[in-house]
Amino acid sequence: MVDYLLTEEQQMLKELAHQIAEEKIRPVAKEHDETGEFPWDIMKIIAQSDLFGVYIDEKYGGTGGGVFELALVTEELSRACGGIAVCFAASALGTYPILLFGNDKQKDKYLPDLASGKKLAAFAVTEPNAGSDASAIETKAEKKADHYVLNGRKQWITNGGEAETYVVIAMTNRSKGARGASAFIVEKGTPGFEFGKKEDKLGIRASATRELLFNDCKIPQENILSREGMGFIVAMKTFDCSRSGVAAQAIGIAQGALELTLEYAHQRHQFGKPITSFQGIQFMLADMATELEAARALVYSACRMVDSGAKNVARASAMAKMYASDVAMKVTTDCIQIFGGYGYMKEYPIEKYFRDAKITQIYEGTNQIMRGVIAANLVKELAKKK
Questions:
Q1: Pair 247, 324: CB distance under 8 Å
Q2: CATH superfamily, with its number, for domain 8-120
Q3: Phi, psi of 288 (to 5 degrees)
Q4: Domain boundaries, given as residue ranges, for the chain
Q5: Angstrom distance (rounded) from CA 360 to CA 246
């Protein structure tokens, strides 16, 4: 692997996450995939290892790192199981809105428990009729004296039902379209807040994906993030940070698949030789390794841009997410091809990597939307030059 000049602390973080992945996650990945049981035992191990706070300020109990450190951990955990890894990463997705837009009181109240892993977070934007189109959100929050009343439904929420802290995007002024959305912190157990069905998914089956149901759910006024009308900005700025995490998940899944395939191909003999001696297989392995390394370089670069405080990181984050997830899908597809008929059987772990990779092209913005974001930024930059 290319030397990315990690600091000593970053290398130690990577090695710790790798150890947890190999010793704790890999032995139970198949079981959690089959049963869909949420991996609370693994979450506790990750919490005890102080990994939940790698991107959170030390004053709130974190270790003071950033998106890059979060990506390093997510990548290593995803090598063993994308489903278990996303339980960890999705908590960061739900935490970032508070980290970016919370006031001091909100940060003091919520971040310590999230940094310690005592509680998990989730982020709720998607609805049955509102995915990529944020202006179509139907969940509404109506102002009533010193509180808001939340009504509506969110769909396909990762960590839904398991998390304690939710950031929910709802409309406070529908006439303003996307600019009429606001962001609220909603706690599990709040009257009027319930959970719908747990989804039966193709991949990342160890993670919980549920509906969130709001029926006259009373939210204190102090639980609004930033101010009314900032919901869309909260979501977009959060995705600028979190999309690199999805990209890291993708390269972790692809790396894990490639390692299994390389080992299998070296052991598998045809015509009296290991299939790694055949040029056709060699070229496939070389292409996979090269594309994966290119994706990793792009992801790490995007993470460092975000952590540096660069103003416009939307394009870099979109590029990282789009390219890394496309590579992950291609790599896992080619890995199954090298496994041949064995790759199609659930007895072998490679088909799980294929299933887990697919969602990285879809959530936190489909790759078609990512291409739109990239193109819009290119056109905008061109207009500035004229």
A1: yes
A2: Acyl-CoA dehydrogenase/oxidase, N-terminal domain (1.10.540.10)
A3: -60, -45
A4: 8-120, 122-229, 232-385
A5: 6
Taking the C-alpha atoms of residue 79 and residue 29, their distance in angstroms, rounded to an integer, is: 11
Superfamily of domain 232-385, CATH level 4: Butyryl-CoA Dehydrogenase, subunit A, domain 3 (1.20.140.10)
Q: Please give the CATH superfamily to which domain 122-229 belongs.
A: Butyryl-CoA Dehydrogenase, subunit A, domain 2 (2.40.110.10)
Residue with tokens 């990762």: 158
pLDDT at 1: 67
Looking at residue 339, its amino acid is F
31 is catalytic: no
The token pair that represents 330 in the structure block: 């291609």
**Regions in the chain scoring below 50 on pLDDT:** none
- Out of 69, 162, 199, 364, which one is annotated catalytic? 364
Query: How many C-beta atoms surround the C-beta of residue 23 within 10 A?
Result: 11
* Strands of the chain, DSSP E: 121-124, 140-144, 147-158, 165-171, 181-187, 193-198, 209-220, 224-225, 269-270, 273-274
| Burial readout 319-345 (b: 16 or more C-beta within 10 A, e: otherwise) | bbbbbbbbbbbbbbbbbbebbeeebee
